[in-house]
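Friendly challenge for the regulars: who can give me the C-alpha coordinates for this chain first? No prize, just bragging rights.
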Amino acid sequence: MTISRIAARAVGSAAISLCLLLSACATLPDVDRSAASKATPTVANGKGALQSKQAAALLARRWARATPDMKALAVQEEAATGVPLIAGNKVTLLIDGPATMTEMMAAVRTATSTVNLETYIFDQDELGLQFADLLIEKRRQGVTVNVLYDSVGTLSVPQAFFERMRAGGVNLLAFNPVNPTTRIGKWQVNNRDHRKLLVVDGNTAFTGGINISSDYANSSFFGSGRRPNTSDGKKVGWRDTHVKIEGPAVAAFQYSFVNNWVHQDAGELPEANYFPPLSAVGDKIVRVLASDPDKGYEIYKSLVLAIQESKKSVHITSAYFVPDQQIVDALIGAARRGVDVRLVLPGVTDHGLVLHAGRAFYEQLLAGGVKIHQLQVAVLHAKTAVIDGSWSTIGSANIDRRSFIHNYELNVIILDPGFAQEMERAFSEDLRDSKQVTLDEWRRRPMSDRIKEWGARLAEYWI
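First reply, four minutes later:
Bragging rights claimed.
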Protein backbone atom coordinates (compact mmCIF):
# COMPACT_ATOMS: atom_id res chain seq x y z
CA MET A 1 0.00 0.00 0.00
CA THR A 2 1.49 3.38 -1.01
CA ILE A 3 2.17 6.16 1.49
CA SER A 4 -0.35 8.45 -0.21
CA ARG A 5 -3.04 5.77 0.00
CA ILE A 6 -2.30 5.17 3.69
CA ALA A 7 -2.40 8.90 4.41
CA ALA A 8 -5.64 9.40 2.50
CA ARG A 9 -7.36 6.54 4.28
CA ALA A 10 -6.06 7.82 7.60
CA VAL A 11 -7.93 11.08 6.94
CA GLY A 12 -11.10 9.11 6.23
CA SER A 13 -10.61 7.04 9.37
CA ALA A 14 -10.13 10.19 11.43
CA ALA A 15 -13.40 11.61 10.12
CA ILE A 16 -15.17 8.36 10.93
CA SER A 17 -13.73 8.29 14.44
CA LEU A 18 -14.88 11.85 15.07
CA CYS A 19 -18.43 10.96 14.06
CA LEU A 20 -18.40 7.92 16.30
CA LEU A 21 -17.16 9.86 19.30
CA LEU A 22 -20.17 12.11 18.87
CA SER A 23 -22.65 9.25 18.64
CA ALA A 24 -23.89 6.43 20.86
CA CYS A 25 -22.29 3.01 20.46
CA ALA A 26 -24.50 0.42 18.82
CA THR A 27 -24.41 -3.13 20.16
CA LEU A 28 -24.71 -6.50 18.48
CA PRO A 29 -27.82 -8.57 19.26
CA ASP A 30 -28.03 -11.77 21.27
CA VAL A 31 -28.61 -14.61 18.82
CA ASP A 32 -31.69 -16.68 19.68
CA ARG A 33 -31.16 -20.35 18.86
CA SER A 34 -34.75 -21.30 19.67
CA ALA A 35 -36.62 -18.91 17.34
CA ALA A 36 -37.23 -21.46 14.57
CA SER A 37 -40.66 -23.10 14.40
CA LYS A 38 -40.80 -24.58 10.86
CA ALA A 39 -39.80 -28.07 9.81
CA THR A 40 -38.51 -27.08 6.35
CA PRO A 41 -36.72 -23.87 5.33
CA THR A 42 -38.16 -21.69 2.57
CA VAL A 43 -36.57 -22.44 -0.80
CA ALA A 44 -36.97 -20.28 -3.91
CA ASN A 45 -35.98 -20.78 -7.52
CA GLY A 46 -36.23 -18.64 -10.64
CA LYS A 47 -40.04 -18.78 -10.50
CA GLY A 48 -40.51 -17.94 -6.82
CA ALA A 49 -40.88 -19.80 -3.52
CA LEU A 50 -41.47 -23.55 -3.66
CA GLN A 51 -44.31 -25.25 -1.83
CA SER A 52 -43.25 -26.84 1.45
CA LYS A 53 -43.46 -30.40 0.06
CA GLN A 54 -41.48 -29.42 -3.04
CA ALA A 55 -38.82 -27.76 -0.90
CA ALA A 56 -38.55 -30.78 1.38
CA ALA A 57 -38.19 -33.14 -1.60
CA LEU A 58 -35.51 -30.96 -3.21
CA LEU A 59 -33.54 -30.67 0.00
CA ALA A 60 -33.77 -34.42 0.57
CA ARG A 61 -32.12 -35.00 -2.82
CA ARG A 62 -29.51 -32.25 -2.52
CA TRP A 63 -28.62 -32.95 1.11
CA ALA A 64 -28.42 -36.73 0.92
CA ARG A 65 -24.91 -36.59 2.41
CA ALA A 66 -25.69 -33.84 4.91
CA THR A 67 -26.52 -34.29 8.56
CA PRO A 68 -29.99 -33.57 9.97
CA ASP A 69 -28.31 -30.80 11.96
CA MET A 70 -27.59 -28.80 8.81
CA LYS A 71 -31.26 -28.91 7.89
CA ALA A 72 -32.17 -27.64 11.35
CA LEU A 73 -29.52 -24.92 11.03
CA ALA A 74 -31.06 -23.78 7.72
CA VAL A 75 -34.42 -23.31 9.47
CA GLN A 76 -32.83 -21.42 12.38
CA GLU A 77 -30.85 -19.25 10.00
CA GLU A 78 -33.99 -18.28 8.10
CA ALA A 79 -35.75 -17.41 11.35
CA ALA A 80 -32.81 -15.20 12.38
CA THR A 81 -32.22 -13.47 9.04
CA GLY A 82 -35.58 -13.59 7.25
CA VAL A 83 -33.77 -14.60 4.05
CA PRO A 84 -34.81 -17.74 2.10
CA LEU A 85 -32.59 -20.29 0.41
CA ILE A 86 -32.27 -20.18 -3.38
CA ALA A 87 -31.85 -23.41 -5.34
CA GLY A 88 -30.51 -24.24 -8.79
CA ASN A 89 -27.19 -22.41 -8.81
CA LYS A 90 -23.70 -23.07 -10.10
CA VAL A 91 -20.97 -21.85 -7.71
CA THR A 92 -17.28 -21.58 -8.65
CA LEU A 93 -14.60 -21.01 -6.00
CA LEU A 94 -11.94 -18.47 -7.00
CA ILE A 95 -8.65 -18.14 -5.12
CA ASP A 96 -6.50 -14.97 -5.25
CA GLY A 97 -6.50 -12.00 -7.58
CA PRO A 98 -5.19 -13.33 -10.91
CA ALA A 99 -7.76 -16.15 -11.19
CA THR A 100 -10.59 -13.90 -10.00
CA MET A 101 -9.71 -10.95 -12.25
CA THR A 102 -9.37 -13.26 -15.25
CA GLU A 103 -12.88 -14.64 -14.65
CA MET A 104 -14.42 -11.25 -13.92
CA MET A 105 -12.93 -9.54 -16.96
CA ALA A 106 -13.87 -12.47 -19.18
CA ALA A 107 -17.47 -12.16 -17.99
CA VAL A 108 -17.50 -8.41 -18.64
CA ARG A 109 -16.16 -8.95 -22.17
CA THR A 110 -19.16 -11.15 -22.95
CA ALA A 111 -21.71 -8.63 -21.59
CA THR A 112 -24.47 -7.67 -24.02
CA SER A 113 -26.87 -5.79 -21.73
CA THR A 114 -25.61 -4.59 -18.33
CA VAL A 115 -22.54 -4.50 -16.10
CA ASN A 116 -23.01 -3.46 -12.45
CA LEU A 117 -19.87 -3.09 -10.33
CA GLU A 118 -19.85 -2.29 -6.60
CA THR A 119 -16.49 -2.04 -4.87
CA TYR A 120 -14.83 -0.56 -1.79
CA ILE A 121 -11.51 0.11 -3.56
CA PHE A 122 -11.07 1.00 -7.24
CA ASP A 123 -7.45 2.11 -7.58
CA GLN A 124 -5.81 3.99 -10.40
CA ASP A 125 -3.05 1.46 -10.98
CA GLU A 126 -2.23 -1.01 -13.73
CA LEU A 127 -5.07 -3.36 -12.83
CA GLY A 128 -7.55 -0.56 -12.17
CA LEU A 129 -6.74 1.08 -15.50
CA GLN A 130 -7.27 -2.22 -17.33
CA PHE A 131 -10.64 -2.67 -15.68
CA ALA A 132 -11.65 0.93 -16.37
CA ASP A 133 -10.64 0.59 -20.04
CA LEU A 134 -12.75 -2.55 -20.34
CA LEU A 135 -15.80 -0.82 -18.81
CA ILE A 136 -15.40 2.13 -21.19
CA GLU A 137 -15.12 -0.25 -24.16
CA LYS A 138 -18.28 -2.13 -23.15
CA ARG A 139 -20.14 1.16 -22.84
CA ARG A 140 -18.93 2.09 -26.34
CA GLN A 141 -20.47 -1.19 -27.51
CA GLY A 142 -23.84 -0.14 -26.09
CA VAL A 143 -23.77 -2.02 -22.77
CA THR A 144 -25.17 -0.14 -19.75
CA VAL A 145 -22.35 0.14 -17.18
CA ASN A 146 -22.96 1.29 -13.59
CA VAL A 147 -20.19 1.64 -10.98
CA LEU A 148 -20.82 2.24 -7.26
CA TYR A 149 -17.57 2.93 -5.39
CA ASP A 150 -16.91 3.84 -1.77
CA SER A 151 -15.65 7.38 -1.19
CA VAL A 152 -13.35 6.41 1.70
CA GLY A 153 -11.98 3.34 -0.06
CA THR A 154 -11.11 5.53 -3.05
CA LEU A 155 -10.07 8.64 -1.10
CA SER A 156 -6.55 8.68 -2.55
CA VAL A 157 -7.67 8.05 -6.15
CA PRO A 158 -7.55 11.15 -8.41
CA GLN A 159 -11.00 12.25 -9.52
CA ALA A 160 -9.66 12.41 -13.07
CA PHE A 161 -9.65 8.60 -13.04
CA PHE A 162 -13.40 8.50 -12.47
CA GLU A 163 -14.09 11.48 -14.74
CA ARG A 164 -12.43 9.61 -17.61
CA MET A 165 -14.88 6.72 -17.14
CA ARG A 166 -17.77 9.16 -16.82
CA ALA A 167 -16.72 10.85 -20.05
CA GLY A 168 -16.76 7.41 -21.67
CA GLY A 169 -20.42 6.96 -20.75
CA VAL A 170 -20.01 4.90 -17.57
CA ASN A 171 -22.52 5.79 -14.82
CA LEU A 172 -20.64 6.36 -11.55
CA LEU A 173 -21.77 7.02 -8.00
CA ALA A 174 -19.55 7.74 -4.99
CA PHE A 175 -21.04 6.04 -1.92
CA ASN A 176 -21.57 8.24 1.18
CA PRO A 177 -19.18 11.08 0.24
CA VAL A 178 -16.68 12.23 2.86
CA ASN A 179 -17.36 15.88 2.02
CA PRO A 180 -20.68 16.78 3.76
CA THR A 181 -21.47 19.44 1.14
CA THR A 182 -21.45 16.88 -1.68
CA ARG A 183 -24.80 15.36 -0.74
CA ILE A 184 -26.66 17.71 1.59
CA GLY A 185 -28.76 15.97 4.22
CA LYS A 186 -27.26 12.56 3.47
CA TRP A 187 -23.92 12.65 5.33
CA GLN A 188 -23.23 9.20 6.79
CA VAL A 189 -19.45 9.11 6.75
CA ASN A 190 -19.18 6.29 9.29
CA ASN A 191 -21.23 3.88 7.16
CA ARG A 192 -19.05 2.50 4.40
CA ASP A 193 -19.92 0.32 1.41
CA HIS A 194 -17.49 -2.55 1.94
CA ARG A 195 -19.21 -4.87 -0.55
CA LYS A 196 -17.41 -6.33 -3.56
CA LEU A 197 -19.93 -7.24 -6.26
CA LEU A 198 -19.98 -7.61 -10.02
CA VAL A 199 -23.18 -8.58 -11.85
CA VAL A 200 -23.04 -9.15 -15.62
CA ASP A 201 -26.20 -9.26 -17.76
CA GLY A 202 -28.22 -10.10 -14.64
CA ASN A 203 -27.19 -13.77 -14.90
CA THR A 204 -23.64 -13.97 -13.50
CA ALA A 205 -22.44 -12.56 -10.17
CA PHE A 206 -19.08 -12.36 -8.40
CA THR A 207 -18.57 -11.55 -4.73
CA GLY A 208 -16.01 -12.06 -1.97
CA GLY A 209 -13.09 -10.08 -0.59
CA ILE A 210 -11.27 -8.89 -3.71
CA ASN A 211 -11.11 -5.19 -4.62
CA ILE A 212 -9.99 -3.61 -7.89
CA SER A 213 -6.37 -2.98 -6.91
CA SER A 214 -2.81 -3.96 -7.81
CA ASP A 215 -2.62 -5.73 -4.45
CA TYR A 216 -4.32 -8.53 -6.40
CA ALA A 217 -2.22 -8.35 -9.57
CA ASN A 218 -0.05 -11.25 -8.42
CA SER A 219 -0.71 -14.57 -6.73
CA SER A 220 -0.11 -15.29 -3.03
CA PHE A 221 1.42 -18.61 -4.20
CA PHE A 222 -1.64 -20.41 -2.83
CA GLY A 223 -1.61 -24.06 -3.93
CA SER A 224 1.78 -23.77 -5.61
CA GLY A 225 3.60 -26.01 -3.14
CA ARG A 226 6.40 -23.46 -2.82
CA ARG A 227 7.17 -20.39 -0.76
CA PRO A 228 7.31 -16.94 -2.36
CA ASN A 229 10.68 -15.69 -3.57
CA THR A 230 10.71 -11.91 -3.82
CA SER A 231 14.39 -11.60 -4.79
CA ASP A 232 13.29 -10.89 -8.36
CA GLY A 233 11.41 -7.80 -7.16
CA LYS A 234 7.99 -9.27 -7.92
CA LYS A 235 5.43 -8.40 -5.27
CA VAL A 236 3.56 -11.24 -3.60
CA GLY A 237 -0.19 -10.85 -4.07
CA TRP A 238 -2.66 -10.76 -1.22
CA ARG A 239 -4.32 -14.04 -0.20
CA ASP A 240 -8.04 -13.67 -0.84
CA THR A 241 -11.13 -15.61 -1.89
CA HIS A 242 -13.96 -14.80 -4.27
CA VAL A 243 -16.84 -16.78 -5.75
CA LYS A 244 -18.71 -16.81 -9.05
CA ILE A 245 -22.44 -17.56 -8.99
CA GLU A 246 -24.73 -18.39 -11.90
CA GLY A 247 -28.44 -19.17 -11.65
CA PRO A 248 -31.52 -17.83 -9.81
CA ALA A 249 -29.49 -16.43 -6.88
CA VAL A 250 -28.01 -13.77 -9.17
CA ALA A 251 -31.30 -11.84 -8.92
CA ALA A 252 -30.69 -11.39 -5.17
CA PHE A 253 -27.23 -9.97 -5.84
CA GLN A 254 -28.64 -7.67 -8.51
CA TYR A 255 -31.33 -6.48 -6.14
CA SER A 256 -28.74 -5.62 -3.47
CA PHE A 257 -26.85 -3.48 -6.01
CA VAL A 258 -29.96 -1.65 -7.22
CA ASN A 259 -31.18 -1.12 -3.66
CA ASN A 260 -27.86 0.35 -2.52
CA TRP A 261 -27.72 2.68 -5.53
CA VAL A 262 -31.29 3.92 -5.11
CA HIS A 263 -30.89 4.58 -1.39
CA GLN A 264 -28.04 6.99 -2.09
CA ASP A 265 -30.69 9.45 -3.38
CA ALA A 266 -28.27 10.67 -6.03
CA GLY A 267 -30.07 9.86 -9.26
CA GLU A 268 -31.80 6.86 -10.78
CA LEU A 269 -30.14 3.99 -12.58
CA PRO A 270 -30.54 4.12 -16.36
CA GLU A 271 -33.33 1.94 -17.69
CA ALA A 272 -32.13 -1.54 -18.62
CA ASN A 273 -33.10 -5.20 -18.29
CA TYR A 274 -31.49 -5.80 -14.90
CA PHE A 275 -33.66 -8.82 -14.01
CA PRO A 276 -33.86 -11.31 -16.90
CA PRO A 277 -35.58 -14.69 -16.34
CA LEU A 278 -33.18 -17.08 -14.60
CA SER A 279 -33.34 -20.85 -14.92
CA ALA A 280 -31.55 -23.46 -12.84
CA VAL A 281 -27.99 -24.05 -14.06
CA GLY A 282 -26.65 -26.15 -11.19
CA ASP A 283 -27.52 -27.92 -7.96
CA LYS A 284 -26.13 -25.54 -5.33
CA ILE A 285 -28.41 -24.08 -2.65
CA VAL A 286 -27.36 -20.66 -1.38
CA ARG A 287 -28.47 -17.83 0.87
CA VAL A 288 -27.54 -14.27 -0.11
CA LEU A 289 -27.06 -11.92 2.86
CA ALA A 290 -26.72 -8.19 2.16
CA SER A 291 -26.46 -6.42 5.50
CA ASP A 292 -27.05 -2.72 6.21
CA PRO A 293 -25.75 -0.78 9.25
CA ASP A 294 -27.66 -1.12 12.51
CA LYS A 295 -30.48 -3.16 10.94
CA GLY A 296 -30.90 -6.93 10.71
CA TYR A 297 -27.31 -8.04 11.47
CA GLU A 298 -27.98 -10.96 9.10
CA ILE A 299 -24.34 -11.91 8.44
CA TYR A 300 -23.46 -11.77 12.13
CA LYS A 301 -26.44 -13.88 13.17
CA SER A 302 -25.76 -16.53 10.53
CA LEU A 303 -22.14 -16.92 11.63
CA VAL A 304 -22.95 -17.11 15.35
CA LEU A 305 -25.70 -19.68 14.74
CA ALA A 306 -23.45 -21.86 12.57
CA ILE A 307 -20.74 -21.89 15.22
CA GLN A 308 -23.22 -22.53 18.05
CA GLU A 309 -24.77 -25.47 16.18
CA SER A 310 -21.48 -26.98 14.95
CA LYS A 311 -20.88 -30.65 15.67
CA LYS A 312 -17.59 -31.58 13.98
CA SER A 313 -15.53 -28.65 12.71
CA VAL A 314 -15.33 -24.87 12.54
CA HIS A 315 -12.64 -23.66 10.13
CA ILE A 316 -12.47 -19.88 9.75
CA THR A 317 -10.13 -17.72 7.68
CA SER A 318 -10.37 -14.08 8.76
CA ALA A 319 -8.33 -11.10 7.58
CA TYR A 320 -9.39 -8.63 10.28
CA PHE A 321 -10.40 -10.56 13.37
CA VAL A 322 -11.70 -8.51 16.31
CA PRO A 323 -14.63 -10.60 17.61
CA ASP A 324 -17.22 -9.60 20.16
CA GLN A 325 -17.69 -11.72 23.28
CA GLN A 326 -20.63 -13.68 21.84
CA ILE A 327 -18.45 -14.99 18.99
CA VAL A 328 -15.59 -15.73 21.40
CA ASP A 329 -17.98 -17.65 23.65
CA ALA A 330 -19.42 -19.55 20.67
CA LEU A 331 -15.94 -20.58 19.46
CA ILE A 332 -14.83 -21.70 22.93
CA GLY A 333 -18.15 -23.47 23.53
CA ALA A 334 -17.71 -25.42 20.32
CA ALA A 335 -14.12 -26.38 21.17
CA ARG A 336 -15.14 -27.55 24.65
CA ARG A 337 -17.78 -29.90 23.25
CA GLY A 338 -15.18 -31.56 21.02
CA VAL A 339 -15.52 -29.57 17.79
CA ASP A 340 -12.28 -29.00 15.87
CA VAL A 341 -12.13 -25.19 15.97
CA ARG A 342 -9.30 -23.68 13.95
CA LEU A 343 -8.70 -20.09 12.89
CA VAL A 344 -6.33 -18.94 10.15
CA LEU A 345 -5.48 -15.34 10.99
CA PRO A 346 -2.89 -12.87 9.67
CA GLY A 347 0.79 -13.28 10.39
CA VAL A 348 1.43 -10.09 8.44
CA THR A 349 -1.10 -7.34 7.82
CA ASP A 350 -1.72 -3.95 6.25
CA HIS A 351 -3.56 -2.76 9.38
CA GLY A 352 -1.48 -3.05 12.56
CA LEU A 353 -4.09 -1.61 14.92
CA VAL A 354 -6.65 -4.24 13.91
CA LEU A 355 -3.99 -6.99 14.14
CA HIS A 356 -3.17 -6.11 17.76
CA ALA A 357 -6.83 -5.64 18.74
CA GLY A 358 -7.56 -9.15 17.49
CA ARG A 359 -4.54 -10.64 19.23
CA ALA A 360 -5.90 -9.34 22.52
CA PHE A 361 -8.37 -12.25 22.33
CA TYR A 362 -5.75 -14.95 21.68
CA GLU A 363 -5.11 -16.00 25.28
CA GLN A 364 -8.80 -16.47 26.05
CA LEU A 365 -9.36 -18.42 22.83
CA LEU A 366 -6.26 -20.60 23.19
CA ALA A 367 -7.08 -21.38 26.83
CA GLY A 368 -10.57 -22.40 25.67
CA GLY A 369 -9.26 -24.96 23.19
CA VAL A 370 -9.43 -22.91 19.98
CA LYS A 371 -6.45 -23.52 17.66
CA ILE A 372 -4.94 -20.42 16.07
CA HIS A 373 -2.71 -20.38 12.98
CA GLN A 374 -1.06 -17.29 11.50
CA LEU A 375 -0.57 -17.13 7.71
CA GLN A 376 3.06 -16.33 6.96
CA VAL A 377 3.51 -16.04 3.20
CA ALA A 378 1.23 -13.14 2.22
CA VAL A 379 -1.13 -10.48 3.51
CA LEU A 380 -4.35 -12.30 4.40
CA HIS A 381 -7.53 -10.59 3.14
CA ALA A 382 -9.97 -13.52 2.82
CA LYS A 383 -13.21 -13.70 4.83
CA THR A 384 -14.42 -17.31 4.72
CA ALA A 385 -15.66 -20.13 6.91
CA VAL A 386 -16.55 -23.79 6.45
CA ILE A 387 -18.44 -25.58 9.21
CA ASP A 388 -19.26 -29.27 9.65
CA GLY A 389 -18.25 -30.03 6.06
CA SER A 390 -21.58 -28.66 4.75
CA TRP A 391 -21.98 -24.95 5.56
CA SER A 392 -19.71 -22.43 3.84
CA THR A 393 -19.63 -18.66 3.62
CA ILE A 394 -17.62 -16.26 1.48
CA GLY A 395 -17.98 -12.51 1.37
CA SER A 396 -16.81 -9.04 2.30
CA ALA A 397 -17.60 -9.07 6.04
CA ASN A 398 -14.73 -9.32 8.49
CA ILE A 399 -15.27 -10.69 11.98
CA ASP A 400 -15.32 -7.30 13.69
CA ARG A 401 -17.78 -4.67 14.84
CA ARG A 402 -17.10 -2.38 11.87
CA SER A 403 -18.36 -5.02 9.46
CA PHE A 404 -21.30 -6.14 11.58
CA ILE A 405 -22.51 -2.72 12.82
CA HIS A 406 -21.26 0.09 10.59
CA ASN A 407 -20.65 -1.21 7.06
CA TYR A 408 -22.74 -2.36 4.13
CA GLU A 409 -21.52 -5.94 3.62
CA LEU A 410 -22.35 -8.87 1.34
CA ASN A 411 -21.86 -12.59 2.03
CA VAL A 412 -23.14 -15.72 0.37
CA ILE A 413 -23.80 -18.95 2.27
CA ILE A 414 -23.49 -22.20 0.32
CA LEU A 415 -25.17 -25.27 1.84
CA ASP A 416 -23.48 -28.07 -0.05
CA PRO A 417 -21.07 -30.83 1.10
CA GLY A 418 -19.30 -30.94 -2.28
CA PHE A 419 -18.52 -27.23 -2.25
CA ALA A 420 -17.52 -27.49 1.41
CA GLN A 421 -14.89 -30.07 0.41
CA GLU A 422 -13.35 -27.47 -1.91
CA MET A 423 -13.37 -25.00 0.95
CA GLU A 424 -11.72 -27.54 3.26
CA ARG A 425 -8.96 -28.15 0.71
CA ALA A 426 -8.34 -24.41 0.52
CA PHE A 427 -8.27 -24.20 4.32
CA SER A 428 -5.72 -27.03 4.47
CA GLU A 429 -3.51 -25.13 2.01
CA ASP A 430 -3.64 -22.08 4.26
CA LEU A 431 -2.75 -24.23 7.28
CA ARG A 432 0.33 -25.47 5.40
CA ASP A 433 1.52 -21.90 4.95
CA SER A 434 0.75 -20.89 8.53
CA LYS A 435 2.44 -21.15 11.92
CA GLN A 436 0.40 -22.44 14.85
CA VAL A 437 0.32 -20.31 17.98
CA THR A 438 0.48 -22.24 21.28
CA LEU A 439 -0.79 -21.01 24.63
CA ASP A 440 2.62 -21.38 26.31
CA GLU A 441 4.32 -19.48 23.51
CA TRP A 442 1.69 -16.76 23.60
CA ARG A 443 2.04 -16.25 27.33
CA ARG A 444 5.76 -15.56 26.80
CA ARG A 445 5.20 -12.73 24.32
CA PRO A 446 6.94 -9.41 25.06
CA MET A 447 5.39 -6.78 27.29
CA SER A 448 5.52 -4.35 24.37
CA ASP A 449 3.08 -6.59 22.46
CA ARG A 450 0.75 -6.72 25.45
CA ILE A 451 0.71 -2.92 25.63
CA LYS A 452 -0.11 -2.69 21.91
CA GLU A 453 -2.98 -5.15 22.39
CA TRP A 454 -4.31 -3.22 25.37
CA GLY A 455 -4.19 0.05 23.45
CA ALA A 456 -5.79 -1.44 20.35
CA ARG A 457 -8.64 -2.93 22.42
CA LEU A 458 -9.60 0.59 23.50
CA ALA A 459 -10.34 1.44 19.87
CA GLU A 460 -11.88 -1.88 18.77
CA TYR A 461 -15.39 -0.45 18.34
CA TRP A 462 -14.14 2.22 15.95
CA ILE A 463 -11.71 0.21 13.79
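The chain has 15 helices and 17 strands. The two ends are 18 Å apart (CA to CA). Your move, everyone else.
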